[in-house]
Design brief:
Elements: E1 4-9, E2 18-22, E3 27-31, H1 38-53, E4 61-67, E5 70-76, H2 90-106
Antiparallel strand pairs: 1-2, 1-5, 2-3, 4-5
C-alpha cells in the first residue's frame, strides 16, 4: 500500500510557501494556496501527486491525518492487496465493550448495552 506524505516548505528569498508531496519514491512540490482553507491546500498537493502518478483510475477516496511534520494520506479500498478489514474476535469485542463501559462509569456517564 502506498501512502502520500505532505510536508510544508516555508518561503525563501526566491519562492513562496510550498507543499511537497511524496510516496518515498516520487515527489511533487506545489505552491501553497494561502487563499484556500488549510485542509484544501494540503489536499490539493496530495491530489496533484495522485494525478501525476495516474493513481485512482476508478475514483476512490483518500483519508488524511495530521503528523508532526504535515499530513499523510491513505487510500480506501484501492486494490485487493491493500484493502484490509478489521473484524475483532467476539472475545476481543466483548473485552473492548467492557473497557469502554468502565471508562464511562468512572466519568459519571451511563453505559448502554
Amino acid at each position: 500500500m502506498k501512502t502520500i506524505e505532505c510536508k510544508y516548505l516555508g518561503p525563501t528569498n526566491f519562492r513562496g510557501s510550498r507543499i511537497k508531496a511524496t510516496d518515498g519514491d516520487h515527489s511533487i512540490t506545489v505552491d501553497y494556496d494561502h487563499g484556500a482553507r488549510r485542509e484544501d491546500a494540503w489536499d490539493g498537493a496530495a491530489r496533484a501527486f495522485v494525478d501525476m502518478m495516474g493513481w485512482l483510475p476508478n475514483g476512490g477516496r483518500m483519508h488524511r491525518g495530521d503528523t508532526k511534520s504535515g499530513m499523510v494520506y491513505v487510500f480506501e479500498g484501492y486494490g485487493d492487496s491493500s484493502t484490509l478489514e478489521f473484524k475483532p474476535s467476539p472475545e476481543r469485542h466483548a473485552t473492548e465493550r467492557k473497557r469502554l463501559s468502565d471508562i464511562m462509569v468512572r466519568n459519571g456517564l451511563k453505559a448502554t448495552e
